[in-house]
Amino acid sequence: MTERAQRVLWGLVLIVAVGLAGVTVGMYRYSRSVLSAGDASAYELVYVSNRDGDFQLYTCGASGEENRALAGSAFGDILPACSSAVTGSTGPAVAFLRLGGASDDSEQVGMTGSVSVLSRGRREAVTVSGHITRVLAVAPVWSPQGDRIAFGAAEDANADGAFTADEAGIYLAALDGTEPVRVAAGNTEDTRMSWSPAGQQLLVQIRLPGPQEVMARLLDISGGGGLIRRDPYTTVACWSPDGQRIAAYSTADHRIHVLLVDDGTEEYSVSAPAGDVSYLHWRSAGGDKGQLIALVSEHPATWQGRLFMRSVVEDSASSWQLLDPESTEVYYPAVSPDGQWIAYSRPDGTGEVDLMVLAPGGKPTRVTSDGGLDILPCWSPKSAPSRQDAAPR
Predict the structure, then answer these.
(1) How many C-beta neighbours within 10 Å does residue 121 have?
(2) DSSP 352
(3) pLDDT value at 272 more than 90
């Protein structure tokens, strides 16, 4: 072999080696991006469906596998809230409202019913709302430690037989059978509540009379129940992943304000997408400060709209990304505990509403198609029940 041929051969080998190195780096980066999206198979979805004639709870895997009625659920079970705890006395569990029948008076707030809990592997729900007989139409929420549940209810405080908005309030229930404790007044019907990551405070949406129907407030549970508000135009708010900040949407300037929890000081604000923000979530992924996920409606006080995402950083170059360009009718989004996946409901074009799952930046996947309305999902971590819990009840 001539010297020239040897040089050409070694050149080809070098080119191939560089190419293989580039492919290796590319495959590594791809694998890292796939891994960073998390593993949806670590979760199950619990949701509400009326496919069998009335609303009750169903469950399926994050890809739609093993779709079935939730063991222990009955007709009239609605508004599920999944505990993200995978250890402790309860393990993964779902809290929900169990309705006791039709409301006797449409003028009164709330519905006849209770707050119940189904733990993984058990077939009988446990009532945790004690003496409460009328609950508000707001999903109960678990404390981060999984030992308390906040819910909305109304009591006939003046014993006149009526349940009015000024008799509505927020209650805390423990799982040890003790009576729930009322911690604040306020009508939370058809709104949302969320715990701080440390379990010391609640962000709540209070329904008010008048044209401005909803106002977001901060409830300090550890400090005796004082309600702190930023202004009467702040309608939706969410916690930062570390619990040190709050992102709050104001209809006054159509911006999302990033506030320090300690004193309410505003760090900065970012513009909101065109429309009215009805849902906010601050996910930890997507940079040092994370990303905001917003459901934006064309009209105020509606729960369907388009789903957007943007970086939380104060940067005029950042823009909102439309997550599901195929639909302007997204309902009830729910972000997985690790922030990597979003479940929501979307009409299928035939009058039915199905569950969708997507990783932000990816394509949505339809995970149910069983007829009826499949709505109000929550994410439950998979965890094998103990032998005692797995025994039929």
Answers:
(1) 21
(2) -
(3) yes
pLDDT digits (tens, 9 = 90+) for 14-25: 332 333 333 333
- Please, are residues 308 and 297 in contact by the beta-carbon 8 Å criterion? no
* H or E element in which residue 60 lies: strand 56-61
As beta bridge partners, residue 381 has 43
| pLDDT value, residue 393 | 29
**Three-class DSSP category at 388:** helix
| pLDDT tens column, 363-393 | 999 999 988 999 999 999 986 444 333 332 2
Q: Using CB atoms within 10 A of its CB, is residue 36 exposed (0-12), middle (13-18) or buried (19+)? A: exposed
Contact 333, 314 (CB under 8 A): no
Sequence-distant (≥ 6) Cβ neighbours of residue 66 within 8 angstroms: 59, 60
Q: What whole-number distance in Å separates Cα of residue 203 and Cα of residue 131?
A: 25
- Report how far residue 356's alpha carbon sits from residue 368's, in angstroms, rounded to the nearest whole number: 8
Tens-digit pLDDT profile for residues 168-205: 999 999 988 899 999 988 899 889 999 999 898 999 99
Query: One-letter amino acid identity for 294?
Result: A
With the CA atoms of 175, 177, 178 and 181 taken in that order, what torsion angle do they form, in degrees rounded to the nearest 10? 50
Task: Determine phi and psi for 236, rounding to 5 degrees.
Answer: -135, 140
- pTM of the predicted model as reported, rounded to 2 decimal places: 0.84
**Alpha-helical runs (H) found in the chain:** 3-36, 387-390
Whether residue 139 contacts residue 192, with contact meaning beta carbons closer than 8 Å, is answered with yes
| Interstrand relation of 342-347 and 353-358 (parallel, antiparallel or unpaired) | antiparallel
Query: CA-CA distance, 66 to 382, in Å (whole number)?
Result: 13
Q: How far apart are CA 235 and CA 238, in angstroms?
A: 11
